[in-house]
Amino acid sequence: MIIMPTLHCKPGMKLGRSVYSEQRQVLARRGFVLSEGIIRRFHEMGFPFLHVEEEGTEDITPEQAIRDETLIVLHSAIALVMEEASAPGRESLSFETVRFCHDAAAMLVNDLRSRKDPVCLPIHLTTMMQDGGRRQFAEHALNVAVCSTRTAIEAGLPGEELIALAMGAMLHDIGRLRTREGQEGPAALGEDDGAHAEAGYLLLRDSGFPLLAAHCALFHHERMDGSGYPFGVGGARIHEMVQWVGIVDAFDTLVHGRIDGRPMLPHEAIEVLYAGAGTLYDFDKIKRLRDRFALFPVGTVVRLNTGEIGVVSRLHEDNKQRPVVRVFSHADGSRVAKPFELDLKRHLHLMIGSLDGGKAPDPSPACGGAGLKTANVEQQPEKTAAGARREPVTVGPQWRRYWGKDWFQFV
């Protein structure tokens, strides 16, 4: 089974996972055979990805971070909060909604506790959402909640605090629906970027959420060196678990291109976070995120720097950044006679150039491939140990409000 962009699916493929309507009704069950019209219709209905069976990948089963039942309940809770939070004149959420969020967070905690493997897996919604902004908001909320809660479990956070953190991580950005930023879509990052943190805090506090949950909304953009917002506090004044919410929020934002619409590859996003390690973020936390997060989960379709297309078939426990890839297409798009596997941990000259089998970006280090523009500084290419030219990378002023700094660089 593979996770494929809907428009890349072909007639005759079978669904590997059921898909649902916004009312959580089954639209098509696992094993449903796709036709050209159905593929087009799924795309129009707001399904960017589908889990499908592909020849040569029958033994590959993408892992799920949580059960489908839990995912549906969490998504329902987020959708309900979004509806109430965006209602004009509403000052707080209903008691029933707060209770529903608590129960959904408890289901998330139980699911993650039952997993033996501590790896963090990204969430792909299999529920119809025609509003792209709402889908992006919901997926971002789920990814931050899953990874932050997984980390808190490892840290030994006690039961009710764990549920409070899960609720706060899930709703950390809810203030966006109550500020001007929400007018451009729930996921937009506007100029007045600090307002949503306070708005989210007030909504959660006044609705009766635990204080830790409300603090996730208030402090997730604060940074260790005090350069964040809305208050510019730093260090030990930021709850350790809220620091995790901020780190995962930044990582998922980079990967999905929520700042300027240009997503980064996961390993590029990790490099950007490393650039702020020791100043913006705690170094050990960035390292743990790198080691625990499945940057390229099993079932992900990738294009290598050689142009070959394949699917991630296996992860290494000690090096999740360089998985095993099963190649099924040549660089020209023709099928290989027999799929074969390449272990990127052994073949160090091979790299993942793009996800979903799309065209690889122009070769450039780290976030250069994401099209980030440099500013405030002119730099000369440096020589690597092998003598090859390597361009230094900077992050320009379009990141100022998000990172709390005009720019930073790493090489």
TrEMBL record:
<dbReference type="Pfam" id="PF13487">
    <property type="entry name" value="HD_5"/>
</dbReference>
<dbReference type="InterPro" id="IPR037522">
    <property type="entry name" value="HD_GYP_dom"/>
</dbReference>
<dbReference type="InterPro" id="IPR003607">
    <property type="entry name" value="HD/PDEase_dom"/>
</dbReference>
<feature type="domain" description="HD-GYP">
    <location>
        <begin position="115"/>
        <end position="305"/>
    </location>
</feature>
<dbReference type="InterPro" id="IPR006675">
    <property type="entry name" value="HDIG_dom"/>
</dbReference>
<protein>
    <submittedName>
        <fullName>HD domain-containing protein</fullName>
    </submittedName>
</protein>
<dbReference type="InterPro" id="IPR052020">
    <property type="entry name" value="Cyclic_di-GMP/3'3'-cGAMP_PDE"/>
</dbReference>
